[in-house]
Design goal:
By secondary structure, the protein is mostly helical. It is 67% helix and 0% strand. The protein is elongated, with a radius of gyration of 28 Å.
């Protein structure tokens, strides 16, 4: 099996340090404003999606233009602050999501390259162990644990 290298990248120590510093700064800025929910808490709340987003903008416009229709139990000023904060975070979220997708895609391809190279090495060691090459059997036995054979039945003797 030919090993096709789909990506070839590396990072300098300075680049890694710079990325970490920038991420730390972003985390610090957002950490004082944003919250973290548990999985259960996330299920308890609705989400404004693409279809609801334009409707929500219309509602906010009406709330501002026709305040006489606002329910008395809703704090219109707080609702406006929530709306503005969400509008501010939306492009930041989109940019962070695009970065996450890019890093995730890169990790996928790096993992694929790595796994293919690892499989090639393993198959080569297996072949060398079968040929009784000195030291190959110990490596093969160690690496073979990744592929348990408990699902296969041995041929009847």
């Amino acid at each position: 099996m030919a090993n096709s290298n789909l990506i070839a990248i590396s990072f300098t120590a300075e680049e890694v340090q710079s990325i970490r510093e920038h991420m730390s700064a972003i985390r610090e800025l957002l950490g004082s404003k944003c919250i973290s929910l548990t999985a259960e808490e996330r299920r308890e709340h609705g989400r404004i999606g693409n279809k609801t987003e334009n409707w929500s903008r219309k509602v906010m416009q009406y709330m501002n233009e026709q305040p006489g229709f606002n329910p008395t139990f809703i704090d219109a000023e707080e609702t406006q602050r929530d709306f503005e904060a969400r509008e501010t975070l939306k492009p930041i979220f989109n940019e962070l999501q695009a970065l996450q997708d890019m890093v995730d895609d890169t990790m996928l391809i790096l993992g694929s390259d790595l796994y293919q190279a690892n499989l090639s090495y393993y198959q080569n060691v297996r072949l060398m162990a079968a040929q009784n090459v000195n030291g190959a059997k110990a490596i093969y036995d160690d690496l073979a644990a990744q592929f348990p054979r408990n699902g296969r039945k041995k041929k009847a003797e």
